[in-house]
# Entry
Amino acid sequence: MTILVTGGAGYIGSHTCIELINGGFDIVVVDNLCNSFKESILRVEKITGATIPFYELDIQNNKGLKKIFESHDIKAVLHFAGLKSVSESVSNPDKYHSNNVVGSENLFQVMSKFKCKNIIFSSSATVYGIPKYVPIDERSPLDAINPYGETKLMVENILCNLYANDKTWNIAMLRYFNPVGAHDSGLIGEDPNGTPNNLMPLIMRTASGKDPKIKIYGDDYETEDGSGVRDYIHVVDLAKAHVKALRFILEEESRILVVNLGTGHGVSVLKLINIFQSVSGKLVPFEIAERREGDVAISYANPTLANKILDWRAEKSLEKMCEDAWRWQCMNPNGYQEN
Ligand code: NAD
Ligand code: UD1
# Structure
């Protein structure tokens, strides 16, 4: 059975490609490489021994997508392709709207034309805005507090409308919390373009001496040690959840599902840095800085629905997340670019 993976060369997509192949699926990848390298696909091939048809294409390209659907009998789509920088979305909201929303609409239109109506969409915990309570369940109120978040909410709404008008769709919208870590081969991992904004890639840069120290954005939140609390989830656990969600929707006649993917545990910035230091034996110098605009104090998931419906739970520890991220960093000090 063939699955199309959009954004499959990216961080979460590449890890999911491995789990799909391990799960017995054939995959086809489309990615315009705007935030990734073809090398990641070559590494997935190396890890799995599979040959992956790869198309360097923008999902906004209607004709190009149609050709892919003509060439392969695609049963379902895992839709990771999207831009994900909150700060860039604030400075260039139109780019985010075209890429994430118009691109997705184009994909859904082509899927419809080819009667391929099984889709898994990469949504984000960002759709909860400032959480009204924690742990956050799927019924928590939604609110977009930046243009990136707006694009995620808009695509979720488009999918809800598709389903409302045509019950032959099977849809899973997966709201990820904070994915970190890497495949334990050390061959694939997170390789963000330019200077990263997210915590784990910045810890890697500091531990490897590229940055002298890391800024901790605020030590006066109402949390155990004053630093922000998040739900860090190993990217391989996240990837495995996609395979479970895929099997789930493929078994259903008609379904729309929205599911949180997190561990259910909140971890502070200081705690994560401490664990990383003990696992890697590396010092991560830091300084306390002002709170970052747009940050929330505490965000973590209630993953009960994923446990129940998908029979999935996150299994990998914070130590494992740090160990795997560090192995990827040490084996690939410049990400994919060295090769
Ligand atoms: P990523 O940037 O590593 O992967 C996204 C991939 O999509 C990249 O390879 C990029 O080149 C590709 N892409 C982007 N726009 C495209 C387009 N128009 N046409 C074709 N390819 C395109 O990001 P990621 O961390 O792997 O995230 C995957 C998805 O998960 C994204 O939709 C992101 O918004 C969502 N998400 C990520 C996080 C996170 O923290 N990483 C959290 C929540 C949700
Ligand atoms: C950020 C985005 C969110 C997006 C997610 C995944 C913002 C405001 N939010 O979430 O929309 O879905 O990334 O891409 O950008 N921290 C530091 N120092 C740093 C970097 C981060 O102390 O240099 C802290 C933050 O304040 C936060 C935690 O580390 O408490 C995690 O930050 P980050 O990795 O950027 O993720 P989020 O803020 O949860």
In short: DSSP finds eleven helices and 13 strands in the chain. The chain has a mean pLDDT of 97. The first strand starts at residue 2 and ends at 6.
